[in-house]
Amino acid sequence: MAVTACIFDAYGTLFDVTAAARTAAGEPGRGDLAAVWERLAADWRAKQLEYSWLRAVTGDYVPFWEVTKDGLDWAMERAGLDDLELRERLLALYWELAAYREAPRCLAELKAAGRATAILSNGSPDMLDGAVASSGIGEWLDAVLSVDAVGVFKPARAVYNMVGARFGTDPGDVLFVSSNGWDIAGAAAYGFHTVWVNRAGLPVDRLPGRPAHMVDDLSTVPSLAATL
């Protein structure tokens, strides 16, 4: 078995990052949010990522929860939503993000095949613990690895080093799965086998690391892993 460990990004890969805004928008009395929730969710995610990259470059590390709150504040201001109660509700829902429906079966099939499975995420440990618990996927994970341990965000090489340190693997033993093109580029350049879960049908990023495989969702990852 060439690939002994399958490592997953969390947000956007296993967990639906739009779920918090979508859920809140469907609640009674949320008409203002309902009109803009899709844009707000996209802005929130974009700023969350941008702030993590900028902080990685400048060395101004803070836990991902702080980045998440800052991104939401920017997105709400852009949307014209000045509502502290709504802000607290959206943040609370982020701790309970739903897993994509194919995620549990994907992880279960990998475990049944004898492969180690783990999350490698920018998320703070408490954030990840909340999402794993609420989604019910913890029974199929051997580890949940957070960048808090190294104090820098992906795609820094120090983050990908955490996989070998935890599982005793070489990069060629690892299949890395992410929905983020920039994350896949970093992991590919590092030497991992890579699968880009390109749910939105986006072009490949113009970066040195290129995805080895591209899929629409997680359902085919176990069969793909078996070929490597």
Please describe what this structure looks like.
- This protein has 228 residues and is an alpha/beta fold.
- The chain folds into two domains: 5-15 and 98-225, Rossmann fold (3-Layer(aba) Sandwich), CATH 3.40.50; 19-94, DNA polymerase, domain 1.
- Helices cover 47% and strands 12% of the residues.
- The chain has ten helices and six strands, in the order βααααααβαβαβαββα.
- It has a six-stranded parallel beta sheet with strand order 3-2-1-4-5-6, with helices on both faces.
- Helix 1 (19-25) runs antiparallel to helix 3 and helix 1 crosses helix 5.
- It is globular, with a radius of gyration of 17 Å.
- The protein starts with a strand and ends with a helix.
- The mean pLDDT is 96.
Q: What are the salient characteristics of this protein?
A:
alpha/beta; six-stranded parallel sheet; 47% helix; Rossmann fold; DNA polymerase, domain 1; 12% strand; 2 domains; 228 residues
Could you name the CATH topology of the largest domain? Rossmann fold
**CATH architectural group of the largest domain:** 3-Layer(aba) Sandwich
How confident is the prediction overall: mean pLDDT? Answer: 96
Helix content: 40-55%
What overall geometry do the principal axes of the alpha carbons give? globular
Number of domains: 2
Number of beta-strand segments: 6
CATH superfamily of the largest domain: HAD superfamily/HAD-like
* Strand fraction: 5-15%
> First CA to last CA: what distance?
8 Å
Count of runs of 4 or more consecutive helical residues: 10
Based on CA atoms alone, the radius of gyration comes out at 17 Å
Q: Enumerate the spans where pLDDT stays under 50 for 5 or more consecutive residues.
A: none
**Helix and strand sequence:** EHHHHHHEHEHEHEEH
